[in-house]
Design goal:
binds pyridoxal-5'-phosphate, 3-stranded antiparallel beta sheet, single chain
Length: 384
């Protein structure tokens, strides 16, 4: 490493490889000067809809707006309970709360990091019994790139008449029993934040649905509640949430690499990490159940009870290897929910994961030598 810090997700290396096409695309967009709603935006939406296998892709400004717009389009609001995993990025619960609904935080499974279907059904029954809120939707998150258990979650949603929203911000590119992530909910969302599996050079997001009416509603909500045919006839209140043309162009270039080799390469890299680490004492490697594939937004280990995580991180950092902890705090303990119904949750697995997870550097351009260095350094740290 020559005393240099390794990148956690090396976007510079990706740019070096794609430089020619990205530079050409950026120049093209600038010369055309259609910075908002240029042709590249619709082209990208069509490409991504076809890849994911749904009828409509509606791009927007970021993955958080995508969730908000999807919930608004389904009429979620005050008085509604929205069931959200307790172990996730803040947006998954922030969006329902921001539009007046009450997120109810549900525990996850320790090995998949995703929402537990038994905890979900129990939480729904509890809310029905209390009778204060109307159970309305489930936000299932594809955490770290691995799809949630959609057969189980979907059957619970059917049983109780709930909307299933797939928060695929980390899941784009994953598969679940032959179906692509971002096609697994009644409506699905993703993020193009630079460090996500498919990232742009700023903020970006998208919504995926097969429903023509909901798609039209989302398009309207994303642009000031505009009438479908007349931009200056505003038929509802909406947002200003567009993916700009430059980002769409960059995503077109990046998507080609993503589809052609990046997704395959990152899966090989994850397998090589697992090969290096699966027999090491003091940790558990991430699982990919039969019938699933991950897009590896993160490679997340669980350290055993008694391992000093901070000391492991410090040891690795001294040797130029960055590590991260996603996430340090359960959703129901976030300050924003203090004193609200959302702060009441019984989620022992989430509590444990927040104390024990550790994410290693991962991206499609990591070399075998770097993986070995990370794995060896981690082993040293654990043996001390
Ligand atoms: C990143 C992320 C989001 C939000 O995406 P932004 O584009 O940053 O707004 C939502 N949910 C999850 C699970 C995420 O990881």
């Amino acid at each position: 490493m020559n005393g240099k810090q390794m990148e956690f997700r090396d976007l510079k290396r990706q740019y070096e490889k794609l430089k020619e096409s990205i530079d050409r695309m950026m120049q093209e967009v600038v010369l055309q000067a259609h910075f908002i709603s240029g042709a590249q935006v619709r082209e990208l939406e069509e490409t991504l809809a076809a890849y994911v296998g749904v009828k409509h892709c509606i791009s927007c400004a970021n993955g958080t707006d995508a969730i908000t717009i999807a919930l608004l389009a389904h009429g979620v609001g005050a008085g509604d309970a929205v069931f959200v995993p307790d172990f996730t990025f803040f947006s998954s619960g922030e969006c329902p709360a921001l539009i007046g609904a009450t997120p109810i935080f549900v525990d996850v499974e320790q090995d998949s990091f995703n929402i537990s279907s038994s905890a979900l059904e129990k939480a729904i029954k509890d809310e029905l019994e209390k009778g204060e809120l109307k159970p309305k939707a489930v936000v299932a998150v594809d955490l770290f790139g691995l799809p949630a258990d959609y057969d189980r979650v979907r059957s619970i949603c059917k049983k109780y008449g709930l909307l299933l929203l797939e928060d695929g911000a980390q899941g784009f590119g994953g598969m679940y029993h032959g179906q692509r992530a971002c096609s697994l909910g009644d409506i699905s969302t993703t993020s193009f934040f630079p460090a996500k599996p498919l990232g742009c050079y700023g903020d970006g997001g998208a919504i995926f649905t097969d429903d023509d009416r909901i798609a039209a509603l989302c398009r309207s909500l994303a642009v000031h509640g505009k009438n479908q045919d007349d931009k200056y006839d505003n038929v509802r209140l909406g947002m200003n949430s567009r993916l700009d043309t430059l980002q769409a162009g960059i995503l077109q270039v990046k998507f080609k690499a993503f589809e052609k080799y990046e997704l395959m390469d990152i899966n090989e890299i994850a397998s090589y990490y697992t090969e290096q680490l699966r027999d090491v004492n003091g940790l558990s490697v991430p699982i990919v159940p039969e019938g699933y594939s991950s897009s590896w937004a993160q490679y997340t280990l669980r350290l055993s009870e008694g391992v000093d995580r901070a000391a492991v991180q410090a040891y690795m950092k001294e040797r130029g290897i960055p590590t991260m902890v996603y996430y340090t705090k359960p959703m129901h303990r976030q300050g924003a929910f203090a004193g609200t119904r959302s702060a009441v949750a019984d989620c022992p697995n989430t509590e444990l994961l927040c104390r024990r997870v550790l994410c290693l550097p991962i991206h499609p351009y990591l070399t075998k030598g770097e993986i070995e260095l990370v794995a060896d350094t981690l082993k040293e740290a654990l043996e001390r």
